[in-house]
Design brief:
single chain, mainly alpha, 11 helices, globular
Length: about 290
């Protein structure tokens, strides 16, 4: 890759990290998009994005926790329920295109609700959100959905918590960051257990993501007003929704026939299956 191309990619990764970290997300969806546009080898994009996701979400977790926005009583049930559910979702063979289409529409509608001011900004949580089972059920459902679609829980968790008025916007961001961190680590672990190896990540890319993550997390946790943070969350959801929806409407190879083959064109019965389970895409992107 030429020096100008490296400079452009590093700058873009920095910008993605700033945006996503400011709302408590890791940015894997954005990294995948920019690396794809830059022509990075397809077999290195996903694990590289996961590594950057771990770095940025860890920085966001640290900054939001230091600012006093993290609420463990909300986070822990979500995390505990999401990990096994995501693993289960990754083993299910269901029409991926259908789920991605539905999820994309949900994310786009959520983004519109945030921008239009239709999400509640204050007041008591909705009745169901005040029950002890709420975080467990939500964590399990979002983990399952993440495993089915390969899209991380952060983009699902944020609009759900805001729609139910579970917590202030900065507490929602503080909850999303460690939720994404834990699931990103689980995704990397699954990648390695499946027999893959992690590609070397260029130091300049780690530096760009780290600086962007630190700047964005600091701004989100300490400097940005809640209304601005909500608008940035809407942008993140919009990017994630468009990324999911665009391949479904532009690729001629996506359809029922394509859905029964793996990424290398092999039908399920011929695809490798370490440990008896054929891995799906990691549920740690967001």
């Amino acid at each position: 890759m030429s020096e100008p191309a490296i400079a452009v990619l590093a700058t873009t990764v920095f910008g993605v990290a700033v945006l996503y970290a400011s709302v408590g997300h890791g940015g894997a969806t954005g990294y995948i998009a920019v690396m794809s546009l830059a022509g990075v080898a397809s077999d290195t994009i996903r694990p590289t994005a996961l590594v950057l996701n771990v770095l940025v979400s860890a920085l966001a977790t640290l900054q939001y926790a230091r600012a006093g926005h993290l609420r463990l009583s909300l986070l822990l049930p979500l995390v505990v329920a999401s990990i096994p559910a995501a693993a289960l979702g990754g083993t299910l063979q269901l029409p991926k295109e259908v789920f991605e289409g539905v999820v994309a529409v949900v994310l786009l509608v959520s983004a519109w609700r945030m921008v239009s001011g239709r999400e509640p900004t204050e007041g008591p949580p909705v009745a169901i959100a005040q029950t002890w089972a709420f975080p467990i059920v939500v964590g399990g459902l979002l983990g399952l959905l993440s495993g089915l679609t390969g899209v991380g829980g952060g983009v699902f968790l944020t609009p759900v918590l805001l729609a139910c008025a579970v917590a202030p916007v900065k507490t929602v961001a503080a909850t999303s960051a460690p939720f994404i961190l834990v699931n990103s680590i689980a995704g990397l672990t699954g990648w390695l257990v499946a027999g893959h190896s992690l590609p070397p990540v260029a130091p300049w890319m780690l530096l760009a993501a780290g600086l962007g993550g630190a700047c964005g997390a600091t701004l989100g946790a300490q400097g940005l007003p809640a209304d601005t943070l909500r608008r940035l969350m809407a942008i993140v959801l919009l990017v994630a929704g468009v990324k999911l929806l665009l391949p479904l409407v532009t690729s001629p190879n996506r359809g029922p026939a394509a859905a029964v083959h793996d990424d290398e064109g092999r039908p399920p019965e011929l695809a490798p299956s370490p440990g008896g389970i054929r891995p799906r895409s990691s549920p740690a992107e967001n």
